[in-house]
Please model this.
Amino acid sequence: MAQDDRTNIQRIAAILKSFDAENTPRRTQDIVTELGMSRSTGFGLLRALLVRGWLERSDHGHVRLGPRARGLAHAAFEASALTVPARMVADPRRPSGLEATPDLEWDPALVRMVDAGRYRKQAPYRIGFSNASTKNPWRQAMLQSLSYAQKIAQNQIAEMLITDAGDDPERQLRQVNDLVARGIDLLLISIASVNHTALSDRLAALADDGVPIVAVDRRPKDRSSLVSFVTASDHRIGRISALWMAEHLGGQGRVWMLSGLEGASPALRRQQAALSAFAEFPGIKVENVSYTDWTEQGGADAVAQLLGETGRAPDGVWCDSGLQGVGSVRHFLGLGQPVPAHTGGDINQMYRLCVQAHVPMVALDYPASMGARALELSLEVMEGGTVPQRIEVPVQIVLPRGCETASVKADVWAELHAQWDLPGDAILSQGPALRGPQTSAKPRMSA
Model:
């Protein structure tokens, strides 16, 4: 067994052993702090245990041993810590808890570290950010989050060069070359397309030449060129939203899938995870997969086309983000007919529409605050520290009251999550920059 797997299983055992004989609920933050784990590592592991029934929520922010753990009340956790049987880690795609593959939805990269000592350099630094685009509110919010972190660390940054590829990988390749020619110390990048071989090859060549590269949000297909990758769990977003949809529909119904941008790694991973979850429900029929470019108009156009082709509304519309979900919900509302169950969050207007119109929905916000975290990590790389190979910013499950299912419970209620004093295009996972000016950040250079 690999050392990383041993470490993860020891952490699982430590969490389960931390509850007293009365199974008194404990604060999740206290558990993570007590075990000395980072927030992303600790909360990711707690979420995995919750989904599989080893833990259960007793109140918001508090957990206790779940039904599966209580069934092992007399088990010797310490003795079995390094030999956890497959039955303890049910396949996350099986809503009934059927025991199958030993999968805790755990990415070993979350605990792998990279020695960045060879990149150590005296501050201040010149950092280039090659942004995939600023075409939608989420991408603008991610850039604003990064800019917020830049202001905090301004003494460490001599110059921040930002480009906008407009989701064009050829343009991004030219912009990367321009940034390197301007003598940047580190390249921060969000990839326009995971399928662009020339861009991926160029990043590999730069890494071989000693240029440190950090990816945020979207990564290249070949991850070997990266020092680190800052993201959130697209697999979790896709799987949990699809699981909720299937359970909300009682395992029976027609579903339309509205994905984001074709070729973007988050859209691909969410789509794959959702299709895998839907496949566990024989009564769920996925009738299509449409791409919407993560825009309100794209969501509305996709729904209009499908209604024209089928002549009737589906039972559910799975969206990997509320960016296109808003367009879908608004289209149904405009027809004056009941709105099917939806998934997809991120944008304030999605929550407000669903709460006001009583639309059943679930959302897992993709944290725009990862922009700030990516810049913080870039500075840690330039300081020559030891950094994680992958950082996952935690996501939370948002549901309206009364919409929880057997497997999917709310971390926060949609009625409380929606912000009525902020614009509809506000991205609620933006972090501290959210309450600042809502103007779109402008790139300082472009090719």
Notes: The CA atoms of residues 15 and 31 lie 7 Å apart. The chain has a mean pLDDT of 86. The chain is about 40% helix and 15% strand.
